[in-house]
């Protein structure tokens, strides 16, 4: 008797500027306390998949992200980080998630990993924080995606204040059924 394999939902979570800016020099372009809290609450208890450079951009005191299965994508098979899995492909990351009975897998960056996930058509949902500003010095961008393939709803709107440098809106995108 064989067990049916359950495929977890693959969810992209990212914050982007008005021109899909993600970062510069492997760092975020903004400080948004409420968005960080949303990220933590949304991904807590699930698997997170990140590229090596993005993983290394997380402040050391937060690495690996606590109470989450951390999977790092790296071309270097010898790259190891305590309490993390290192894999060479999204397929390998999904195999780990499936083997652990995961129901949600969050792709948390960076730009190359987002591009790979969207290009391979494996993304079921996205949480995008739309920062209401532009950043001319950005060097990393979220990939352009076909808006007509997604339904979206606004789930949060925050004004700038002492802990949120810029106003932003969080939208939840779900792939349209075809």
Structure description:
This protein starts with 8 loop residues before the first strand and ends with a strand. It has helices at 33-43, 52-57, 90-99, 111-119, and strands spanning 9-16, 21-24, 27-28, 47-51, 69-73, 84-87, 104-107, 125-131, 140-141, 150-158, 168-175. It has a single domain (9-175), classed as Dihydrofolate Reductase, subunit A, CATH 3.40.430.10. It has an 8-stranded mixed β-sheet with strand order 6-5-4-7-1-8-11-10, sandwiched between helices. It has a 3-stranded antiparallel β-sheet with strand order 3-2-9, with no helix packed on it. It is an alpha/beta fold.
What brief labels describe this structure?
alpha/beta, Dihydrofolate Reductase, subunit A, 8-stranded mixed β-sheet, 3-stranded antiparallel β-sheet, 4 helices
